[in-house]
Protein 1
Amino acid sequence: MGKSQAEEAKAVECGYWHLWRYNPQLEAEGKNPFSLDSKEPQWDKFQDYLKGEVRFASVAKQFPKEADELFAAAQENAQWRYKSYLRMLGTQW
C-alpha cells in the first residue's frame, strides 16, 4: 500500500490506465467537454507492468501458454481504448 502512487504512475505511463476528465459545462460553451491528461503511453512497458502485478503474474505462473495470448489481448484492448480517447478529442492518430 505504501507504493500505490508509484504503481498508479506506472499504470498510466505504460497505457494500462489513462487519466481523463469530462466537464459537460464546456459543451455549452462550444468546447470539447473531454480532455485527456495522460501522455502518449510507452507501450513497450505494458507487458512489464502486467508481469509486475500479482493478479497477472499468478496467471502467467499457472497458465504460461495462455498468459502470453491474454497479455497481448490486454495490450491490444488498452491501445484501442487510447485511440478511442484520441477520437473523442478530435485528434488524428
Note: Residues 47 and 71 are 7 Å apart (CA to CA).
Protein 2
Amino acid sequence: MSRLIPFLKTGLRNTGFLFGAIIVLVILVMALLSFVWTPHDVTNLDIGNKLKRPGLEFWFGTDHFGRDVFSMIMTGARNSIAVACVSVIIGMGIGVPLGAMAAARGGWLDDFIMRTNDFIFAFPAILSAIMITALLGPGAINAIIAIGIFNIPVFARVTRGAALSLWTREYIMAAQVAGKTISRITVEHILPNIINLLIVQGTIQFSLGILAEAGLSYVGLGTQPPMPSWGRMLNEAQTMMAFAPHLAIVPGLAIILSVLGLNLLGDGLRDLLDPRLRRAR
C-alpha cells in the first residue's frame, strides 16, 4: 500500500495512462454490470421495434431483430474481455516458464524451445482458429485456445530476451557462487526483475486479444449466437450500412476504444514501471 499511493499519484500526472485507465475502467464496469443488469434482454427478439434509431428508449438503437444495441454492447464487452483475459493467462502461463527455461539452460534446449515458438508464431490466430474449429467446431472456447496458443511464443520471446540480459549481471553471478540452483535464481531474482515488462506486454496482448476475438467472431469462428459479440455485430451490420449505420458504428467504436484504452494503459505502465523512463521524464 505504501508503494501503491505514490504510483497512483505519478499515474495521475501521466495523461496517456490516465485516459487509458478511464477507458478500460468504463469498459470493465460495463462488462461486470451486464451480469446483473442490461436495459433490455439481449436474447429477446422484438421485430416490431427493429432498426430503431438511437433514442430515449433504445440509447444506441436496435438491430434487424429488434434487440437493443446498447445491451448487446454491454454483453459483448463481457465476452470479449473473458476471451482476451483467458488467452493472455494461457500465453503467459506457458510462455513465461518456457522463455525463462530457455534463457537459464541455453544450448540445445534453448534452440528447441525458440524454434518451436517460431513455428507456432508462423500461424496467425485466425489460421489457428480455422484449424481448431475444423476439428472441434466454432465457439468462444476454441477462440480462446487459438489466441492463447498464439500468445505463447510472444511471452516466451519477451521473457527469454529480458532474462538473458540479467544472467550476466553481477548479483546473479554472486547467487550462483553462493550455491543457488538455476531454478531458484530464476524464481527469486530473474522473474521479479522482469515482471514489470511482462505486465506491460500483458496489456498489449490483452488489446490484441480483443481485436482477435472480434475478427474471429466476424468470420463466424468466435462467440456463437445467441450471445452477442462485437465482431459478429459488425458482420451483421455490413448489409445495412445505408439505412442503419449505427449498427456498424457502435460496435466499431467499442472495439476501437477498447484497443486504444489498453494500448494507452500499456504505454503508461511502461513509462511508470521503467526506472530509466521515469528519470528521463
Note: The mean pLDDT is 87.
Protein 3
Amino acid sequence: MASIKDVLAKGSPDLLIASCELKDGDFIDYIKEIRRGNAGHNPFIPIITLIETPTPELVARVVESGTDTVIAKPISTAQLLDRIDDLIESRKKFVVSEAYVGPARRKDNAEGGIEAPNTLRAKAIGEKLSFAEVEAMISQAMAQIQIASLDVIGAQIAAHVTNLVPMLERAGRLDPSIRQELLSLLDITDGSSDKLSGSKFEHVTELCESVGNVASAILAARGGAPDPRDIQLLKPLSQAIQACFSGAITSAVQVSAIVQQIGAR
C-alpha cells in the first residue's frame, strides 16, 4: 500500500492494478479515497482490482469501492489485456450516490452519468495531452461530480419524506421507526448547509433548514403526537427542493416566497 500511495503522490499514472489483499493497508478503502478526490492527483484513474480469495463479501466490498473492474486470481495475460481494452474502448460513466462515487455498477442507471477523463485511452490512441489539459479535464469532471453529489441531498430528503408522511398519518404518534426516520432526515438537513454553500444550489439551504425545523418540531411533539399541520408541510417542502435541483427554482427570493406561501417555520 505504501508504494501505491507513493506513486500516486508523486505522479499521475494512467492505470492502477493492485491486489485488494495487501499486508500493509486496506486497498478497498483507499479506492474510495481516490474516487472522492482525497488521494492522488486523478480521481478518475482506471483501476483494476485483483482478488486472491473471492468470497461474496469481499467481491461486494470491491464492487462498492469504485473500482473499474475485478479479476479473481489466477489471471492470464489475455484476460488482463481484455479488461484493459474495455477500459480504453468502452469505459463506464461515473455515477454518484450517497455512499458511492465511481464507474456505474450493474444496479446503476448510467444514462445521466459523467464521462470520466480517460488518459489511458488518450495514450492508447496516440493523443498527446499536456499537463494543463489533463488538469482542466479533471477539474471539469470533478465539478460535475460535485453537482451530482448535491443532487443526492434532494433525493435523500425525498426518500425520507416519502417514507415518513404515510407512517405518521397511519400512526398518529411517534414510534421508534418514525423517530429513526426523523433523525436520519435531520442528519441530512443539518449537513446540507456546508455542502450547498458557495454552489449554484446555495438557495436550497433555506428549504433544507425548513425541513429540518419541521422534523425537529415533530420529534419534540408533546405526548408523541405531532401536529398534523407539521406533517402536511413535509411533502410540499420536499417537492420545492426537487424543483430547485431540477432548475425550476433558481433564486433565494423564489425560495423565501415559497417558504412563506407554504407556511413553513
Note: The radius of gyration is 22 Å.
Protein 4
Amino acid sequence: MALHPSPPVLEIRGLTKTFPRRGKRPPVTAVDRVDLTLEAGEIVGLLGPNGAGKTTTIKCVLGLIRPTAGDIRVCGWDVRTHHHKAIEHASAVLEGARNVYWRMTPRENARFFAGLHGLDHRAHRSHIEELLERFGLTDRGDEPVINLSTGMKQKVAVVCALVKQTDLVFLDEPTLGLDIETSLELRGLLRELARKTRRTIVVSSHDMDVIQDVCERVVILKEGRVVADDRVDSLLALFRTRAYRMVLSDGLVGEVVERLARAVSGLSVTARGERTELEFELPAAERLYEVIDIIREGGAVIETITQKEPDLEEAFLRVINDTGSEGGAGA
C-alpha cells in the first residue's frame, strides 16, 4: 500500500484581501494574490516595510480576517471551510507580551492557554514545566507577570504560543524590547525548538539581525505581494557577488571618478588620510577588470580589493527598492 505524503504545513494560493473605504474611494488592497508554501521544520522570516501586508496575511491564516479571495490550508485543512480543524494546527504571538495576562503568573498563563485550546493542563503538566524550564522561567513561575522584566514577559508570551504544540507557530516581533543578551538567548531557543520538534515557525520582525540569525528562508512582501522568497544565504550571496570595496594609495581626479560612476552602480568615494576607499556594485563580476583599467589609467595604485559582505538589512532594502511600485498599498 503506497504511503501518501503529508501535506505542507501551510499552503496559500492566490490570497487576496481588500478593505472597503468610505464614500466613492476605491478599496485598499492589503494582500494581492500571495502564493506561499511552508514545509515541516522550516524557520521562515516574513519581512516587509510597514503596510506591506504581513499582519493581514498572518491574520487571514489564523482565521481572524476573512480573505477576499484565495485558498489557505493548514496541514491540509481549508481555513475557510474547516476553520476549527485548521486552527488546531496553528498558534501565534501577536503584539508580543500583550497577549498574556499580567495579573496571572507564567504558570497560570500557560495552563490557561492550554485550556483555551481544549487541552487538559493536568495532562500536559510536564510539557508546561519543560517550557518554563527551557525559557528560564521556572524560578519565577509563580510570580505575577506584571512584576517580571520585559524579556521575561516576552518569554511568557512565547511559552503560551508553544504550549499548544501546534505544527505552525507565528511569532510577531518576538524580540521587541529585549536587551541583546536576552534576544540572543531567545534566538537560540527558537532554533533549538524548530530542530527538535519539527515545528514550522514564521518570524515577523523589523530586527534584521534576528531574521538573519534564526531563519533559513526569508519571504519579503511589498505592497501586498511577494517580491522575494529564497534562502537567507542565497539572498546574501546574490549581493555578495556584486558589492566590492577597494583601497587606493592615491586619490582620483574628477574625470576618473566620472568614468567610474558610469561603469559601476552606487559608487562611494571616501578619503581616509593618504588613502582613498571606493565602494561600488557591478552588474557582472567580469566588469571588475574594466574598473581596474580605469583606475590604473588614472594613475592611482590599488592596494586591496575585497568583496563587501552584505547583511540582510542591506539585501532587504535592495529588494524593496529594486521592485516596481505597482499594486495597491498594503496594510
Note: DSSP finds eleven helices and 14 strands in the chain.
